[in-house]
Amino acid sequence: MSPVNAKYQFRRRSTNKKTPSHRIRGPMGGADCLVLAEAIELKYSVSPGAVAVLTNDNRMHDVLLKCSKIGHKSAKSLGLLDAARIVGYPWSQEIYPVPLHVSKTDDASYVDFFGSWPLPSRKIVQKCFGELTHLQAAKLWELTTEIKTEFGVGPDNMPFLPQIELLQLRFAMETGVYVRKSEIGQRIQRWRKNPASRPVI
């Protein structure tokens, strides 16, 4: 992204000498570029849709947004294709994380990306399903039925769709317990097939 950061001003420089210099955004510094580079690495190595950059820095947000919209021809002329080839990435607009501006992003956009907002603020512990209490298991099934009502995705298909991540997140927010998606998926499918085994309060 450094060529994009260096080339684009993102705000026109006024010919009026009275224009305050603080209104002209300079390029990001090296530390900011490293932050975004790490975010790209995380997105490439973890998951295409699992990484966002939350920032209150206008320049960082604008550079990342510009990178995600730049065309192939411009990317080639800027040397982005060659740079991606050197680090082992197939360049495309999709390699860049989603930029979310802290001061300008509304709650709906956060929910759209994270599945729920606000994110868990309590201490989260990881447990196997067998370590859950009866009340926690009942809450997991309750949330499963809520998501089915909300999205029309039931326990049979949920383990293979993004809603399983939403279920995992909502359960963590409600209980402070993180359970692996694979375990959640297996359990809700069993409950769907055997109603008598479902935990009830």
Kindly describe this structure.
The protein has 201 residues and is mainly alpha-helical. Helix content is 49%, strand content 6%. It is built from 9 helices and 4 strands, in the order H-H-E-H-H-H-E-H-E-H-H-E-H. The chain starts with a helix and ends in an 8-residue tail after the last helix.
Give the structure's gist in a few sentences.
With about 200 residues, this protein is mainly alpha-helical.
> Helix-strand pattern, N to C?
HHEHHHEHEHHEH
- Kindly state the mean pLDDT as a whole number? 87
The SS-based structural class is: mainly alpha
Quaternary form:
single chain
Strand order of the largest sheet: 1-2
Stretches where pLDDT is under 50 for at least 5 consecutive residues are none
Total strands: the figure is 4
Strand content: 5-15%
Global shape: elongated
Q: Into which percent range does the helicity of residues fall?
A: 40-55%
Number of helices: 9
